[in-house]
Every structure is written in C-alpha cells, then in structure tokens.
Write a structure and sequence with these properties.
The chain has 262 residues and is of the alpha+beta class. The protein has nine helices and nine strands. The protein folds into two domains: 64 residues, Winged helix-like DNA-binding domain superfamily/Winged helix DNA-binding domain (Arc Repressor Mutant, subunit A); 177 residues, GAF domain (Beta-Lactamase). 45% of the residues lie in helices and 20% in strands. The strands form two sheets. A six-stranded antiparallel sheet has the order 6-5-4-9-8-7, with helices on both faces.
Amino acid sequence: MPEPVKSAERALRIIELLTDLGELDFPDVCAELGIPKSSAHSLLSTMRAMGFVRLDERSRRYTLGPRVWEAGQAYLRDLDIPQLAMPYMQRARDELRETVQLAVLDGIENVYVGKIESDHPLQLVSRLGSRLPAYATGLGKALLAGLSDAEVIRRLNGVDMRSYTSHTITNHAALLDALADVRRRGYATDRGEYTEGVYCVAAPINDRTETVAAISVSIPDVRVNDTTRRRMIQVITTEAAHISHALGAASPLLDTVDTAPA
C-alpha cells in the first residue's frame, strides 16, 4: 500500500475533528495533529480558501465550511437511499409517533443520513451526519448483521469496545451472538446500550446483493411495553422490507419476521 500523503492526511484529519467536535481553535488544531504552528497555519489557510473550513473572526474558532456540506449532499444524492426511504420513514413515524432514523455503515460506525422527529415533548436527540459505534446501537447491529462474522471481527481489530452504559456489548463473542439473533429474527434491538433509558428497534435495508442501510425507531423506556414493542417491530420491519424491495431486493416475506418482543 502506498505511503499516505502527509498534507492530505492532515487536511482530512481536520475535517474529521470538526465533524466530531463541531469547532476548534488554532491551538486545538496544532495539538490534535501534533504539527508545528507554521504547518497548521498553511494547511488551514488553504482549506479556508477552498471553502472546506470557516474561521469565525470573533471567536477565532474553525468550523466546517460549505464545501464539506456540498460534498455530503453529493454523496447522499448519488446514494439516493435517503430520498427513496423518506416516504416509508414518514409512514413509520406517523404510525408510531416516535423518532425514525436511517443510517449507513462506514467501517465500524453507523452514520445517520436520515431522520424524522417524534412529536412527543420527550424524544431522542441526535443529528444527521453523526457517527456512533455500530456495536452499541440497534441500527449498527442491523448493519453489522449484513456482514460475515469474519468481516465483523476484521473491522473490530484494534477497536476498543468501550462501555457506554451497563448494557453495552463489549466483547466479540457477545456481539457475534447478538448478530446471529438479528439475522434469525430479521431485526435488531438496543436496550439502552448507548444511551440509558432509550429502547430502539432497527431493521436492515437490502438491495439486490447486500445490506446497504438500516432504519430504526427509538422510544424512551417510559413509553415501552410489550404492545408497543410488537408494534415497533411490525412497523419497522415492514417499512424496511418495502424500502429493500424498492432497491431491487426480492419481494418482502413479512410473515417470516419474528415479532415477539426482544
């Protein structure tokens, strides 16, 4: 594999940092990258000139620039899944009155590319473009279940499976068991594994050959009972199957989904 180009690697690292942290001042950039001030100044000046970062003149802090947004929109436009999925997500949201989200897998993280908010005052707080560790979320497990066990382990190599709550899966064996259950049932669940007090049901979306995305519904624990769980499973697996069919997957076999609360 060719050696990475240092300046390009640093520029992409800045974009990653601003994506994760929202904003950075100049000393932050130098510290995070571990580079001299002169190098960081030249790099940021170039990125500003090209529209990839912005500098707030009052706070002297950097944020992502409009070119990053444009690149993201181009990616979603080419992917086309969010636009195709939106009517089905809206139908799920209207039926359940809870937050419905759409994500794709990037390495070992799920990236949120679509969302329709609940109309309840108490609702899940999240944002488009955010990333979460796939092993700790329902959406992530629905996406990982589309990979072989060997590929899951390969992607987890060197990853610290951090515990976010007392329910987080933190070892390979437990995760593989959970993914086997996802494949058998046709959906994934998240019982406060990333955020305490949130219950989630997620289902994979497939095209003709593979899992390309996943859809979920999230609900605060205070509104969960066996009836709502069954309804969440039924609605989300149904809409995931219809989106998959629209992407060219075989006609949905909705009667094969195990809707027993998990």
